[in-house]
Amino acid sequence: MLAAERRDHLLGLLAREGKIVAKDVAAALGISEDSVRRDLRDLAAEGLVQRVYGGALPVSPAVVDYAARQAVAPDSKQRVAAVAAGLVQPGSALILDGGTTALAVARALPPELACTVITHSPTIAVALLDHPAAEVYLLGGRVFKHSAVAYGAAAVEAAQNVSAEVCLLGVTGVHPEAGLTTGDAEEAAMKRALAARAADTYVLASAEKIGTASRYRVLPWAKVSGVISDAARDDAVVEQLVGQGVEVLFAG
Questions:
Q1: For 141, left (φ over 0), alpha (ψ -120 to 50), or beta?
Q2: Which residues are 50's β-sheet partners?
Q3: pLDDT tens-digit readout, 35-82
Q4: In this structure, which of 43, 154, 160, 217 has its CB flanked by the most CB atoms within 10 Å?
Q5: Is the Cβ–Cβ distance between 87 and 96 less than 8 Å?
Q6: 207-245 burial by CB neighbour count: b if 16+ within 10 A, else e?
Q7: Are 135 and 104 a contacting pair, CB within 8 Å?
Q8: Using CA of residue 184, residue 214, residue 167, residue 118, what is the dihedral sign?
């Protein structure tokens, strides 16, 4: 089989089964695992797969920069945001992560809702300026321009001095095996710091993130209370998550 044919075969397999297991492909095609791994490296370099131990997973479309992400599935994000906003009770404190879905949550909060919103995202803070009843606490630190959030040692330290009833966390990948992932190691550390300061953490997962993975793990499934997603109830990945005991709050 030519290299171009192997490439098409791998991408087709990924689309059908949601993952590539290198040893299984090697056995099925009668080639070495090294050949499969080389093909996967080439596909990963083109941004077409996310390599993981033993093979590859679908790459998340949410790893592009902040401006580009605003155009990715806006209706999906609004559906997720509507459900997420409903988790915020009057008088409670919310830790709201950065990102475009979190921004949709900020806009979905009722203007008359009296609450405290703790965030490391300047864009979230600005979006809440027209919510007169919301107290906004902005965590500072080095700005990660890709996601328009503060992160790094100063931001993590600031996060350790707050607490809240609920944390609404954004990720770029949601996968039963890879867990909850994002594309930057320091951003992943910041997300862990935020989640650790809330009684309950829910993951904001619009449908395009379900079944995909990025390079850095944020949290294992045991550390979150549930996932909010507009993915179909009969989606194979969603069914696998539910089967693993993950609570899924369906949006729409």
A1: left
A2: 57
A3: 888 888 888 888 888 888 888 888 877 665 555 555 556 788 999 999
A4: 43
A5: no
A6: bbbbbbbbbbbbbebeebbbbbbbbeeebebbeebeeee
A7: no
A8: positive
> What's phi and psi for 110, nearest 5 deg?
-60, 135
Q: What is the pLDDT of residues 138-151, one digit of tens each?
A: 999 999 988 899 99
Query: CB–CB of 81/104 below 8 Å?
Result: yes
Give the chain's length. 252
What's the Cα-to-Cα distance from 190 to each of 21, 35, 58, 144, 221, rounded to whole Å?
31, 37, 24, 11, 17
Residues with Cβ within 8 Å of 150's Cβ and at least 6 positions away in sequence, in order, are 120, 121, 122, 139, 140, 141, 142, 143, 144, 190
Query: In the structure encoding, which two tokens stand for residue 36, read together?
Result: 């499969």
Q: How far apart are CA 203 and CA 144, in angstroms?
A: 20
Token pair recorded at residue 81: 């945001």
Helix, strand, coil in percent for the chain, rounding step 5: 40, 25, 35
Residue 225 · residue 245 · CB < 8 Å: no
